[in-house]
Amino acid sequence: MSSSAAVQGRMTLARSSFAPAPNRAFRSRNVVKAPARRTRSGVAVKAEGGFDRLNIVIVGAECAPFSKTGGLGDVVQSLPKALVRRGHRVMSVVPMYHHYDECHTPCARQKFNVMGTEVEVEYYHLNRDGVDIVFVNHPCFHEVGDQIYAGSTMDVAWRGALMSQAGIEAVWHVHCGGFPFGDENLIYVSNDWHTGLLPVYLRAFYQDHFKLGYARAVHIVHNIAHQGRANPDEVWRLGLPEQHTGAFYLDDPMEGPCMNIMKAAINYATKVIAVSPGYAWELGTDEGGWGLAPTVRSDPAKVSGIVNGIDFHDWDPSHDRFLQSDGFQTYGLNLEGLWTGKQACKAALQRSLGLPERHDACMIGFIGRLDEQKGIDLVLDSEEFLMNQDIQLVFLGSGRQDLKDRLYDMECRNRDKVRSWLGFSNEMAHRITAGCDILLMPSRFEPCGLNQLYA
User: Fold this and answer.
1) 39-54: average pLDDT
2) Which residue, 168, 241, 353, 385, is most buried by CB atoms nearer than 10 A?
3) Euclidean distance between CA atoms 226 and 399, whole angstroms
4) How far apart are CA 159 and CA 37, in angstroms?
5) For 322-333, what is each residue's pLDDT tens digit?
């Protein structure tokens, strides 16, 4: 699926927009066409297909190629480009985990009260492929570096609270292309629980005070198994007025009472989008909702499922930029390409990883997070069986330390058959996909699965 197709699906807001309403009408669930933004000449600005041009702000904890642990980073990278091609103005607001060469001096500074602590952040602006990428710079992001979700639930929530507020106000402070986004035809898009405070803060800190009354919040659920659960008393650390704290409370019959950020995000968002139609249905089941099925079922009309999209330009092996050096080569998706180009990529991958260069050995690759959901433990538990086969195994991923240790030990015991790359490497992900004969995906459940689409 191309990134343009992603827009036709994943973002219903790209084909329709939300009707403006007075601040107190924010609770309306109806999705209707917004009034057109007009130029000085009075002519309405239209996007592709005759729909009104939207100002879309996507806030996420990661964005490839700058930061990535899984599919979320790919979505925050590719979806904005597709929306821009359809005529919308798009800003991606992401943390600045490292200093990036393309970012020189901050374009703005702003102070926020984050869970009772006064902090100052710097905004850095970069325009790439028509997308305004805005980096939020603060020491808390540099402290975690590549370990994006390091720390306790409340540590991640603190960083998410900072990102949520910085993302909301970026439309005022960051002058993209010489002028800010402003608050007309404005859609905020939060992703998973890490930025799930955005819909809540939008209403509690801004719309309840007659600011951004026409803005709408869309929350994308990439994986409902991760919800931002904490002790119920932790809700008071979020700095919210008392009337907004009840949405966080969940009395889970399996795990007991807790504060739940994902639950509040679903309650406060104007629209909830799951990453596939099947997953949207699954969220409403007791088995697949992970304790939030009653919340989803309470307002099923606002939950939609749209299949993830991918960027063909980045993943097409006929011109993949990561297959143009070190012995790798691009190839077409025809029989000749699979026999020549793919074999060349397989040999180059074996050489680069120090594996025996054998075209007759079945090369199997695993790309994903090292956690229970992705089923990496099933692979590790099958070591004896796998190592008795004529195969080579290549792993790329980051995650739980115990699983990383087990993977390293497996490699040490089978140096002629196993290699593991612990950490994130966009280049290696492309090369494994291009060179391996089989991609291993033993997930216990999969909301959508970008690697399946890449393959």
Assistant:
1) 59
2) 168
3) 14
4) 34
5) 999 999 999 988
Distance in angstroms (rounded) separating the CA atoms of residues 427 and 65 = 10
Q: Are 313 and 329 in contact (CB under 8 A)?
A: no
Distances (CA, A) of 65 to 49, 93, 292: 30, 14, 32
Place of tokens 């490292």: 98
CA distance 255 to 1: 38
pLDDT at 50: 60
pLDDT class for 335, splitting at 50, 70, 90? confident
Distance, in Å, from the CA atom of 7 to the CA atom of 11, rounded to the nearest integer, reads 5
The pLDDT tens digits of the residues spanning 157-187 come to 999 999 999 999 999 999 988 778 888 899 9
User: 202 near 217, Cβ under 8 Å?
Assistant: yes
Helix H, strand E, coil C: the string for the chain is: CCHHHHHHHCCHHHCCCCCCCCHHHHHCCCCCCCCCCECCCCCECECHHHCECCEEEEECCCECCCECCCHHHHHHHHHHHHHHHCCCEEEEEEECCCCCCCCCCCCEEEEEEECCEEEEEEEEEEEECCEEEEEEECHHHHHHCCCCCCCCHHHHHHHHHHHHHHHHHHHHHCCECCECCCCCCEEEEEECHHHCHHHHHHHHHHHHHCCCCCCEEEEEECCCCCCCEECHHHHHHHCCCHHHCHHHEEEECCCEEEEEHHHHHHHHCCEEEECCHHHHHHHCCCCCCCCCHHHHHCCHHHEEECCCCCCHHHHCCCCCHHHCCCCCCCCCCCHHHHHHHHHHHHHHHHHHHCCCCCCCCEEEEEECCECCCCCHHHHHHCHHHHHCCCEEEEEEECECHHHHHHHHHHHHHCCCCEEEEECCCHHHHHHHHHHCCEECCCCCCCCCCHHHHHC
The answer to whether the beta carbons of residues 277 and 305 sit under 8 Å apart is yes
Task: Confirm if 198 and 168 have CB atoms less than 8 A apart.
Answer: yes
Q: Are 149 and 194 in contact (CB under 8 A)?
A: yes
345-348 contacts: CB < 8 A, separation 24 or more? 345/317, 345/431, 345/434, 345/435, 346/435, 346/436, 346/437, 348/431, 348/435
